[in-house]
Specification:
Elements: E1 3-6, H1 13-20, H2 24-32, H3 38-46, H4 61-73, E2 77-81, H5 86-101, E3 105-109, H6 122-130, E4 135-139, H7 146-154, E5 158-162, E6 169-171, E7 177-179, E8 186-188, H8 204-218, H9 225-241, H10 248-262, H11 267-275, H12 285-302, H13 306-313, H14 317-351, E9 360-363, H15 372-383, E10 387-393, E11 396-402, H16 409-414, E12 422-425, E13 429-434, H17 439-448, E14 460-463, E15 465-466, H18 474-479, E16 495-508, E17 514-520, E18 526-531, H19 535-546, H20 550-555, E19 566-578, E20 581-593
Parallel strand pairs: 1-14, 2-3, 2-4, 4-5, 5-8, 9-10, 15-16, 18-20
Antiparallel strand pairs: 6-7, 10-11, 11-13, 12-13, 16-17, 16-19, 17-18, 19-20
Helix pairs in contact: 1-2, 4-8, 5-8, 5-9, 5-13, 6-7, 8-9, 9-10, 9-12, 11-14, 12-14, 13-14, 14-15
C-alpha cells in the first residue's frame, strides 16, 4: 500500500481566504503548492497572458530573429525540422504558421520515428541541402545534434536551434560540468547556462511560440494578434502532451489555450475534438493528456507524424474529418498493442529474474519501438521504479525510459554514455540507442550505480487536507475549479476521511469496472462514494481485512449491519449532474483499513 503523508505547511489560511475571497481549504491547498507571497497567489488565481515572461530574455532569440528576417528578405528557402511526438508536431506547426506569416519560403519535415529516429541526422540535412533549402530551423530537438549541425554548417547552411531539452555536458576532472552546445548560428534553449529566461520548464512548442513573439516584434510584422491567439491552443496542447509541470507560466498558457481550443478556427483541431465526442464538453487538461494528445502521438508511433501535421494544416473540413478519424483509429490500435506489450513486460519481470533490480531494464525485441515509452510508464506506475523498455530496431536497440522522483535519469545515463550510439532526455524521461550487445552491460551499470534505497521505491500520496466529508458543500467543490488546470506539478487535490463505514455497494459501467457505495461517517452522515480504480485489488483488500464474504455483504446491502466494514479513505469531492439536478459525490482515490480491522 502507498504511504499516506499529510502536507503540513503553515500559513494564516483564514487571512489568505479573506484576502482572496476563497475557502480556507483552498488557501491551504495553494500553500501546499509552495505559493506563498500575495503576488504569487494572485498570479496563480488570476494570472493573464500579460503575466507571461518576457520572450526577449531567451538567449539568442533576437539574434535568430535578425538572421531569419535577413534570410526571408534575401529569398532564402527555409526548412523546419521537428519531431514525431506531440510537442515536435505542435512546435513545427507554430513555426510554420509564424514564418509563413512573415512571407518566408518555408516548409516542414517531421522525422520518421523508425527510419530517421529522433531529431536531426545527416540524411535530413543532405536532403534539405539537395532540395535547395539554405536554412534549417529545428524545434523540440537540436540541442544534442552537435555533429549533425557541424555537417550542415560545412555545407554552408544556416542553422537555428529551438529546443527545450537538457544541454549535453562533459564532466571535468574536478567534477564540474562544461556544456557541449552545438555550433549553430543561434541556439534558443532556456536550459543553457547563460540563458536569463526565468523559467526553464517550458516545452518546445512554447519556446517556438515565444520565439515568434520576438520575430514579429523585431520585424515589426503586422496583424499578428489573431495568429498568436490561435497558436496558443497548440502551445497548450504540447505543454500538457509533453507532460510539462503546470506551474508558473505553463499554467496560464494551458488555461488560455484550453479556451482557444473550444473556439478554434483550425479545421483539423475542430475535427479532432468532434471525433472524440468533446464538442459539447468543458475541455480540461485531462482531455488533452488522455484523449486528444494520444491521437496526435499515435500517428508518429504507428505511422508518420506528417499525418498530424496535415491535420493542422488543412483548410478543408471534409479532409480534416477523415484525417481525425484516422488518428483516432490509430490510437485505438495503439491501445491494444500497448496492453499486450505491458503484459509481456510484467511477465518478464515476474519470471525473468529482474524483479529485485532497482532499475528495471526490459528488453522486448518484438515490441513496436514507438510503444516503449508508454509501456515504460505503465511499468513504472506498477512497480514504482525507474524503467527502461528496449526494442530491436533497424540499426540496433532503441528504447525509452521513465523515472521516479528520486532518480535523475539523464544524469545517471550520462555516467555510461560510452555504451550508446545516441541518447537524450531529462530527469524523468529519456531515450537511448545502443548496440544489442550492450544491453546487459547497460542493465548492470545502472543497477550498480543507481544510489537508490528501498525508501525511494515507496509510493507516497500527499494529502492536502484531512477533511471530513461533512465539510464538503457544493460551493467548495465549485471553488476547487480555481485551482485548475490540474496535471503534472499541480495535481488534483485530495482529502482524507477516517473511520468511514461501508453500508452498501453496486457495480456499474459498461465493463462492470466502476463501484458505487453508500458510506457513513462517525457522526452518522451518509454520502455517495464512487471508485474508478482497480476493482479486483479493492475486492482482494476487502476480503483480506474483513473476511471472505465481505464483498457479498457489501453488494447485497448488508454492510449496514457490519460495524467491521470500516476504512480510511483518500478522496476528492465532485458534483454529479443528472437531468439538471446536482448531487454531491466523493471519488475514492485510495483506501486503508481502519485501526483494528
Amino acid at each position: 500500500m502507498a504511504k499516506w503523508m499529510v502536507s503540513a505547511k503553515k500559513a494564516d489560511f483564514n487571512a489568505v481566504a479573506e484576502r482572496f475571497r476563497i475557502d480556507p481549504v483552498i488557501a491551504r491547498i495553494i500553500r501546499n503548492r509552495d505559493i506563498v507571497e500575495e503576488e504569487e497567489i494572485d498570479r496563480f488565481l488570476h494570472g493573464t497572458l500579460q503575466d507571461l515572461h518576457d520572450p526577449f530574455r531567451l538567449r539568442d532569440a533576437v539574434k535568430a530573429a535578425g538572421i531569419l528576417h535577413g534570410q526571408i528578405k534575401a529569398g532564402k528557402r527555409i526548412r523546419i525540422i521537428g519531431d514525431y511526438d506531440i510537442d515536435g508536431v505542435c512546435s513545427a506547426y507554430i513555426l510554420l504558421a509564424g514564418l509563413s506569416h512573415c512571407g518566408a519560403d518555408v516548409d516542414t519535415v517531421i522525422p520518421h520515428r523508425i527510419h530517421d529516429g529522433y531529431g536531426l541526422n545527416d540524411n535530413l540535412i543532405k536532403e534539405a541541402w539537395e532540395e535547395g533549402r539554405d536554412t534549417i530551423v529545428t524545434c523540440d530537438n537540436g540541442i544534442a545534434a552537435k555533429a549533425q549541425i557541424a555537417y550542415a554548417r560545412s555545407l554552408g547552411m544556416t542553422v537555428i536551434v529551438t529546443d527545450h531539452h537538457e544541454v549535453p555536458y562533459e564532466v571535468q576532472e574536478d567534477g564540474s560540468r562544461v556544456e557541449c552546445l552545438p555550433e549553430a548560428d543561434a541556439v534558443i534553449d532556456p536550459k543553457q547556462e547563460l540563458c536569463e529566461y526565468p523559467f526553464d520548464g517550458i516545452c518546445g512548442a512554447v519556446v517556438a511560440y515565444k520565439f515568434l513573439q520576438v520575430l514579429f516584434a523585431c520585424g515589426d510584422v503586422p496583424d499578428t494578434e489573431g495568429l498568436m491567439q490561435e497558436l496558443l491552443a497548440f502551445a497548450a496542447i504540447a505543454t500538457v502532451g509533453d507532460v510539462m509541470q503546470l506551474v508558473d507560466e505553463n499554467r496560464i498558457i494551458v488555461r488560455y489555450g484550453l479556451r482557444q481550443i473550444t473556439c478554434t478556427d483550425n479545421e483539423g483541431l475542430q475535427a479532432l475534438v468532434t471525433v472524440n465526442g468533446l464538442r459539447e464538453k468543458k475541455l480540461t487538461a485531462y482531455h488533452i493528456g488522455f484523449v486528444l494528445g494520444p491521437c496526435l502521438n499515435a500517428t508518429g508511433r504507428l505511422d508518420t507524424a506528417e499525418r498530424a501535421m496535415r491535420l493542422f494544416r488543412t483548410r478543408d473540413r471534409a479532409e480534416a474529418a477523415v484525417i481525425a478519424q484516422e488518428l483516432k483509429a490509430l490510437n485505438d490500435s495503439r491501445k491494444d498493442m500497448t496492453l499486450a506489450g505491458t503484459e509481456e513486460a510484467v511477465r518478464m519481470i515476474e519470471e525473468g529474474g529482474i524483479k529485485e533490480d532497482k532499475v528495471l531494464v526490459i528488453y522486448l525485441p518484438d515490441c513496436h519501438e514507438s510503444l516503449a515509452g508508454i509501456i515504460a510508464g505503465r511499468i513504472r506506475e506498477r512497480y514504482h521504479k525507474p524503467v527502461f523498455v528496449l526494442t530491436l530496431a533497424e540499426d540496433g536497440v532503441k528504447g525509452s525510459g521513465r523515472s521516479i522522483e528520486a532518480y535523475h535519469m539523464y544524469d545517471k545515463m550520462s555516467e555510461c554514455k560510452e555504451l550508446y550510439t545516441k541518447y537524450g532526455g531529462h530527469k524523468l524521461a529519456a531515450g537511448v540507442s545502443m548496440p544489442e550487445d550492450n544491453v546487459d552491460a547497460f542493465r548492470s551499470f545502472l543497477n550498480e550505480h543507481c544510489g537508490l534505497t528501498e525508501e525511494d521505491f515507496e509510493e507516497k500520496i500527499h494529502i492536502d487536507v484531512p477533511m471530513p466529508m461533512s465539510y464538503v458543500k457544493a460551493e467548495l467543490v465549485r471553488q476547487l475549479s480555481v485551482l485548475e488546470p490540474f496535471g503534472n506539478g499541480n495535481p488534483k487535490p485530495v482529502f482524507a476521511q477516517r473511520n468511514l463505514r461501508l453500508l452498501s455497494g453496486r457495480i456499474l459501467g459498461r465493463n462492470n469496472n466502476v463501484g458505487k457505495y453508500r458510506v457513513m461517517d462517525e457522526a452518522g452522515g451518509q454520502y455517495d462514494m464512487m471508485y474508478f480504480g482497480d476493482l479486483e485489488a479493492w475486492h482482494e483488500f476487502l476480503q483480506q481485512y474483513f473476511g471472505a464474504d465481505a464483498c457479498e455483504k457489501l453488494y447485497h446491502g448488508r454492510g449496514a449491519g457490519e460495524p467491521g466494514l470500516m476504512i480510511h479513505v483518500i478522496y476528492y469531492p465532485d458534483l454529479n449532474v443528472y437531468q439538471g439536478r446536482e448531487s454531491l459525490q466523493m471519488i475514492m482515490q485510495d483506501y486503508a483499513p481502519a485501526a483494528g480491522s
